[in-house]
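Worked example (supplementary).
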Amino acid sequence: MKKLILYAVVGGIAFIIGYFVNYQFFSDRAPVQPINFSHKIHAGDNQIPCQYCHIYAERSRVSGVPNVKRCMGCHQIIKTDSPEIQKVASYWDKKEPIPWVKVYNLPDHVYFPHKRHVRAGLDCKNCHGDVASMARIEKVSSLQMGWCLSCHSKKEVKNGSDCWTCHK
Amino acid sequence: MSGFLERIAGKLKSYREPGYYTKLDHKWTMVIDLDKCNGCEACVVACYAENNLPVVGKEDCAKSRAFSWLRIERYVEGEYPDVKVKFIPVMCQQCMKAPCETGCPVYATYHNQDGLNVQVYNRCVGTFTCATYCTYDVRRFNWFTYKWPKPLEAQLNPDVSVREMGVMEKCTFCIQRIRSAKDKAKDEGKPVKDGDIKPACSQSCPTGAIYFGDLQDPESIVAKLAKSPRRYRLLEELNADPSVIYLKRVMGDGTTSHE
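After joint prediction of all chains, the assembly is encoded as:
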């Protein structure tokens, strides 16, 4: 009996540790990026506005991942001796895009324009959380239909609950 | 318990009434001038390209699994030297009192605020009821998950989802173009103008036989054409109130066809 309890406790602890390791390092929630880019340093400490890099958010359906040129615009001068920046520079020399892992991934049948939401005066924080305090970007909202609709009905969006407003 | 069920049943019933949307935002209408139609099928090809329709091949066509949302019906009258050929492009008529909507057990097809009869692919379970109820035979069913041969998948329209096996679909009046036109109009702070929206069939028609617009706007070209004495609608006696208006073809001897 004692042995059984011991097994249960050890198994439980192992499960919890495993769960957290999985949640922290192996889930899609906060995947490991090719470069250890910190939004905390850029958006938090240095107060760079979101749309300085994600330039398409206001005028397109997608917000846009910044190209390497935009990174190198600053990092040709700033902190060139850091190993992470040298990784960016190597992509720049190879003329290759950085293979960032997409975190906020919407299914193919959803029509989501960033433009509409930014122009409606919605802050990036509403969906993307407090990015300025994240060392590695992580997904904070479920991106499920109920989550979308809760906001649409709260803000009384015109035709906000019609299927073909968001689906395609 | 029974009161609760009755309340739900009553609510669902009220949704299903034909006049559920008494005041529409728009009433998208298509006017097809059969006098101009020469049956070239450019509209059919454009529809295939725009809406990610798979080409099923000869054998499946023979099993009536053809996939064209828009088809050209041909009527040939008379013998060779004195022959009359008539064409009617038939797509989903976007009926205001649609028979298909009454049949769906999961509400995958419904009427939206633009007066469109729309199909929700994700809700569809493929019971085929709507296709059975449809008077115009325009609903198409995905019998398989169709694949595009290698370089062709690059030409798929990103604004239209690629449907999978077991889903019913039909002409949407190019709802993605309606949406982008509305989006553009909203950016400019103006209502959608007449002529802003052109469905793929209308855009590709070499003779300009297909007009598209808002019937509620009295200045629009469709509202003017809808008053034409040549006007008729397909199977009007069935009272489904279709949104596609045809203009009769005037034959050489002054009589009109399609009567």
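Two points are worth noting when inspecting this output. Chain A has a mean pLDDT of 90. Chain A touches chain B through 13 residues (CB under 8 Å).
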